[in-house]
Amino acid sequence: MRTFDFAPLYRATVGFDRIADMMDRVMETEVSTPSYPPYNIEKLDENSYRISIAVAGFAEAELSVEVKEGALIVSARKAEDDKERTYLHRGIATRAFERRFQLADHVRVSGASHVDGMLHIDLVREVPEALKPRKIEISGGSKTAAAIEAETVEA
User: Fold this and answer.
1) Each residue of 68-122: pLDDT tens digit?
2) Where are the domains of the chain?
3) How far apart are CA 40 and CA 111, in angstroms?
4) If we measure between CA atoms, which residue out of 39, 76, 73 comes closest to residue 54?
5) DSSP structure string for 84-107
6) Rounded Cα–Cα distance for residues 154 and 132 (Å)
7) Binning pLDDT at 50, 70 and 90, where does residue 147 land?
8) pTM as predicted
9) Fewest CB atoms less than 10 Å from the CB: which of 16, 30, 70, 71?
């Protein structure tokens, strides 16, 4: 696989360290992507998303969901009570895991629920008012900007 050098990006930009670090992590060839546990990411509407993770065999108390440094971290650790049991076949994987999802700017976790062996994590994108598009009124050409400003100050 081809490797990329992001050093020019670091030299020519300010404030984009997070994006460059994310690109470095994505481009690493040594790290294989874990496939356990399986999950879905769905877009519910324009600004809401849901991550659903299959966590069969885990109780609510054994699951952990936290947001740290712009990443959603979901982990689980099974309590060690299986020593009394003897399995003839063990097909349900209850091994410990940690799954990380990098969150975009202005995305926050709005809630989580554990239903029927699935962990559902709801996310909402909240764009600040300063970043939302706004309509600028166009005034008539007969008045100058100074005259319009003087009228608004007097009123």
Assistant:
1) 988 899 999 987 766 777 888 888 878 889 999 988 888 999 999 999 999 999 9
2) 1-32, 35-154
3) 16
4) 39
5) G---S---S----EEEEEEPPTTE
6) 30
7) low
8) 0.65
9) 30
